[in-house]
User: Fold this.
Amino acid sequence: MHTRKLWILLTFAVITASTLLLSSYRPAENNFHTEAELQNLRGGARSPIDSGEYFLGSVRCQGCHGFDTLHQANVDENGKDVNLYDDWESTMMALSAKDPLWRAKVSHEIMVNPAHANELQTKCTSCHAPMGHYSAMFKGQQYYTLADLLNDTLGLNGVACGGCHEIGSDSLIPLEFSGNVHYDTNHVEYGPFTNPDIGPMQLYVGLIPTHSHHMSTSKVCAACHTLQTKTVDLNGNYTGNTFTEQATYHEWLNSSFNDSQPCQHCHMPQINDPVVLANGYQNLTPRSPFNLHKFMGGNATMLKLIKQNKNALGIEVPDMNFDSTINVTLDLLRHSSVDMNLGIDSITTDTLFVSVQLTNKAGHKFPSGYPSRRAFLQFAVTAGNDTVFKSGMLQPDYEVEGHDAQVEPHYNTITNPNQVQIYEMAMGDVNNNRTTVLEQAAVELKDNRLPPAGFTTQHYAYDTTRIVGNAETDPDFNSNGSNEGTGKDIVHYHIPLNGTTGNLNVQAALYYQSIAPGFLTNMFSMHSAQIDSFKNMYQAADKAPVLIASGMADSVLIPTGINTITSDNWNVFPIPSANGQVILTSKGNPVINRIEIWDAAGRKVNEYYFNTHNSQYIVNLPVNSGIYYLKIYSGNSYAVKKAVRQ
Assistant:
C-alpha cells in the first residue's frame, strides 16, 4: 500500500515538473544557462518563495534584473547600464523603512500619544515597510510595529519589487488610500509588457510574471500617496474627523495631466531603446519602451543625509548609486518643477513695480507630499553695492527671515521686507494653532502650494486638495482673472526707492526645502533613540535649499522728471499675437514720443520713435514667443502695457 502511494506521488511530481517546463518553453528563445549560472540562480538567497509566504526580498530579483557582467541585458542600445536593481536601491522607495526622519517622526508621534502607539506604527509601516507589514497581516497579526520591523528583512527592504508589482489590478476599483493596499497573494508579479516569459521566474523564484495595464497607471501609486489621518484633540482623544496629510494622487487627478501623463512619466522616465530584461538568456526578446527605475522625487536633502550616514543606518549601497539618484532628483527639481518670468511693470522716481510669475510644470502641487516641504521666493533689488530691498533671505539656521512664527500669509503684493512668499501647507490643531504633530492635524491653516495646470475648485477631488488662505481670493493665483487652471502665480513687488539714483539690478529666485527647520522644532524638543539619532545626523547634514528657478533684470534706469500715467488710457490687441504685430490705441489722441519694448526678464529689446498725433500705432514684437511690456512715452509721462507673442 505504501509503495503504491509512493509511486502515485512520484508520478504526480514528474507530471507537474514536466508541465512547468513545457509551459515555459518558447521555441524562439534559448533559456540555456551554464552550470555556474544555474547554481547561482538556485542558491539559497534566490530559492523559490517559501510555502505560506507572499513576498520575496529584492535580492532575489537581482540575479536577473541587476547588473549584467556580460553587458547584454539591462543595457540600452548604447550599452549603458539601466538595470532595475541598482537604480532602485539608492532611492527613497528602497530606503523608506530605514529613513531616519520617518523613524524619528513615528517615535515623536508615539511620545505625544502613547496610547495610540500600536495603531500609529501599524499605519505608518503599511507604506514604509509594506512587504513586512502585509506579510504580518496575512498571517493574522493585529499590529506591525518598529520592533517587528527591525527584526524583519522583508520590512527593512522598504518599497521593494513585490511592494509594487504584486498590487492587484482588481484592488484599484474602488481605489483604496492611506496605506490600504490590496495585494494579489497568488504569487504573481504584474508588469507592463504583454506575453511575458513565464518559465524562468516561475522556476527560480516561484512567481508568475503577468501582464497588466494597471502597472502603467497612476492608480498603482494612489494607496500610499493619498494619506488621511484620524484627528485627535490635545488630550489624545479621537474627534471622529480626518485630516488629509497628503494627496498627491488627488492633485494629479485635478490637473490636465490626468489623461495623458501618469506618475511614471516623470518619476520613472521612459526610454524607447529595446532592453533585454533578464540576465543570462540568449535571444530573449528586447522590450520597449522601458521605464527606468530611478524613482526620483523631491528629497535630495534626505538622500544626501542617508548617504552620509549609511553605515550607521545599516545600508550597503555604493556611493556612486547614491550620487546617480541625487543627480537625477536635482535635475527633476531644477528643470521639471517650476518656470519663472521676472518683468519690470513700471518705474517712477520713487517706486519700482515688478512682477514675478511662477508656472508649475509638475502634474501635482508644488511642493507636494509630506507637509515638511515648502518653497519660498527670494527677491532683491540692488543699486551698485547697496541693497535697496530684500525679501526671503535665509538665516544661519536656514529659516526664512521675516517668516511669521505662526503662519506667513500668502501675498498678491509685497511692499515690505518682512513680507515673504512661502508656498506651503500649514497644519492646525483643534484650536487652530499650527502643529507639526500629524495626529493633531485638524484643519489647514494655509495651502498656497502652486497648483498644477488644469486645477479647478469645481473638480470632485477638490475637497482633499483645497486652496486655503489668502491665495483663495488672489486673482493671479491659478487664474488669469476669469478662468481657473493656469497653474501660475504672479507676485507683485512694489519697491520704495527712497531717493535711490542710478541703475537698479533686480533678482528673484525660488528655493525649495524638503525639510523646513520649523517642522522639526517640536520633535527635537523631545528625546528618544530615534529622535536623537536623526537630530545628530540632521545637524551635520547639508541643509542648503535647492534653487528651482531664477530671474534677473539688469540696469533698470530710475527715471528723472517723468511721471507714470494711467494705463487705462491705452489698449493693446490682439493678445496674444500670432505674428508678433500688435496695435496700440489710445484715448484722447495724445502725442507719443516713443514706445520701448521690454522682455519679461526686464531687458529693453527695441524702441520706436513717433512724435505724432495718431490714434493707433503698430508695433512689431521680437521674434521669440513670450511676454513683453510696451513702455509708452508721451511728453513727461509714460504708461506700461503688456503684450504677448505666441
